[in-house]
């Protein structure tokens, strides 16, 4: 995972989407995440799924500076299988998400991995429209415009709320005064000191994906068209 992040940094990525977990934050992984943050890259990572044994926000989602994403259902309610915790920053749709699959086909997926991909796409859209914003300002724009759910303000299930892509792209957002990321240090939250072992954060094969902005824009356009056609009133 660390090498993948380092490759993304070297390749000039602006957003990195990670739907993969490690048991514990190794020094190389922590250094890679810090290197991405120092390079003004937004890292978006899946919080983890309870049905796959994640009882706390996973690594690297729990690391400082990483956008930890939980999932909600089609009604915008917290998905019961989504891990919650103090590191959750945002939520996004993650139940029965229509997506491409193996063999040039399509499938439906559920989990924080799906929510993470959508959030990474939102990051890419914001960075495309506001290219001069720093990574911290991009995250701030997403948290400031998110639809608040649950208790007022940030909470452990929804974070700052469910992403609102239209608002993130159009709202008048005050400048950032401090980074919204509240993730504590990795050592304080580490569940063990064993070496990192990759485990999927969502159903199917977990992937570390570096998302080019153009590809993400195309994927989101396809998703929006599909959604509009499916929910069109006869």
From TrEMBL:
SUPFAM superfamilies: Subtilisin-like. It comes from the Bacteria. Residues 177-192 have a biased composition (Low complexity). GO terms for biological process: proteolysis. Residues 2-161 form the Peptidase S8/S53 domain. The chain crosses the membrane at residues 206-229. This is Peptidase S8/S53 domain-containing protein. It comes from Rugosimonospora africana. The lineage of its organism: Bacteria, Bacillati, Actinomycetota, Actinomycetes, Micromonosporales.
